[in-house]
Design brief:
Helix 7 links the parallel strand 4 and strand 5. Helices cover 48% and strands 15% of the residues. The protein folds into 2 domains: 121 residues, Rossmann fold; 66 residues, no CATH class.
């Protein structure tokens, strides 16, 4: 019997996309894509989601690409311009699940520094009973250790828990641990897949 639901944040509850910042800056989606693929990469951002201080990662990247210093600094200086707000309908969905008696938790790969910027801005995060943030713990999904940490901290059983994430690798790890993983594709699809 499912009693607990764990939500990822970015791509599930909150709309985060670096293109919201860089597409208007470059005036060209292809140029922005090149920059995000080759300079401020997913892997570079993930270091900070894994606990590396932003000031360190930024300095290292500027040393490698001094010609892109302005654009590199923008990534975190203008971080909130990457936020598109709450994903439509998800706050209401979470409220409904809580009203049905489910315990609601969060498990997200997010820098501790940038999560502090969004934490008080979006009401959906106030509905979360407890959360584990990778930047705080220095371990990130899909590493099974962060899932095990979350289960222990929340005091819940894997077999009584659903985990919702937009990344299939994270869903795979959840399923391997006996948590029912659901890949988030849309609010409507999720409603049909929830227990």
């Amino acid at each position: 019997m499912i009693k607990n639901i764990i939500f990822d944040f970015g791509g599930v509850l909150l709309d985060w996309n670096p293109h919201y910042l860089y597409d208007p800056y470059f005036g060209d989606k292809d140029k922005a894509e090149w920059f995000l693929t080759n300079i401020c990469t997913y892997e570079w951002n993930a270091q900070h989601d894994n606990g590396k201080p932003i000031i360190e990662g930024t300095a290292e990247l500027i040393a490698q690409h001094p010609e892109w210093e302005k654009e590199i600094r923008m990534y975190y200086d203008d971080f909130m311009k990457m936020m598109g707000g709450q994903i439509l309908g998800m706050e209401e969905l979470v409220r409904g699940l809580k009203a049905q008696g489910y315990r609601i938790f969060g498990l997200s790969n997010w820098s501790v520094e940038t999560f502090a910027l969004v934490r008080t801005v979006y009401p959906v995060l106030d509905l979360i009973d407890d959360m584990v943030i990778s930047g705080v713990e220095h371990v990130m999904k899909p590493d099974r250790r962060i899932f095990e940490l979350a289960l222990k901290r929340f005091g819940i059983e894997a077999s009584e828990t659903v985990f919702i994430d937009d990344n299939p690798n994270n869903v795979k790890t959840a399923n391997e641990l006996g948590i029912r993983g659901i890949r988030f594709q849309s609010r409507e699809r999720l409603l049909s897949e929830l227990p």
